[in-house]
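Exam review. A common question shows you a sequence with its structure tokens and asks you to describe the fold in words. Practice with the pair below. Do the first one on your own.
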Amino acid sequence: MVDANWYVVHTYSGYENKVKVDIEKTIENRRLQEQILEVSVPMQDIVELKNGAKKQTAKKMFPGYVLIHMVMNDETWYVVRNTRGVTGFVGPGSKPVPLTEEEMKTLGFRQGEISLDFETGDMITVQSGVWEGTVGKVQSINMGKQSITIHVEMFGRETPVELSFSEIKRS
């Protein structure tokens, strides 16, 4: 499989989250999970002082831009480029230019590789979120999205649940 790279996509102002959701829906509908690994609108926590009270809010690090971790080919280019709200890839002319590892590090929004102390088939406990305290068996691990899928029993049936790495610990 060809290596995936990070690309920057320019969007209409204020459409970043809509573009992210639309691309994710298209990925699911066209089964492109192996080619478009992650769509991200990098956010930064800001503490604001309003009316004498501190308030923590999340602001977009790069308004008007969306970062996409994907394998560049005709199909993925077409899907992204023809998403409503996308004005184009960042790069000279019509040729998208991937971000280098150094550029990704300087952006400060991606950490290095994560090593996991569990693997497919292990039992884990959910540490936070809606599923906190739930124990489930790891079915799959997606390093690109930094998430896992576990099966939990709900209403007497095995149900798949996707969780981020930060929500889990090994049982």
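Now try the second one, then compare your answer with the model answer below.
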Amino acid sequence: MASVSASDIKQIVVACEAGMGSSVMVARALAKQLKAQGIAVTHSPVNQLAEAPHDLVLVHRGLSARAKQAVPDSVVIIFDMFLGDLNIAKLVGAIQNGDVISDG
């Protein structure tokens, strides 16, 4: 299980299939929520995650196995819904509270 302190998170990447849709929407919404923390949020195709700079990866459940394979030492947070997902809300709260974030 990988973990990262919220204070060490400067870059979150939202992994996607091709980078053209719902993941962009998630990345934009997350960037707005974490603007005060100075965290950059981008998106990347899951097959290019190894090249994408990140401290944490956020990925839809359908791509989670591929994301974990691409970046096995990174914290990978899985979500199910592109809007209003509880795991995304928990992630934002943990970052805002300065918690340690773990995958799994």
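Model answer, second protein: The chain has one domain: 3-102. The first helix runs from residue 22 to 33. Full marks require stating both points clearly.
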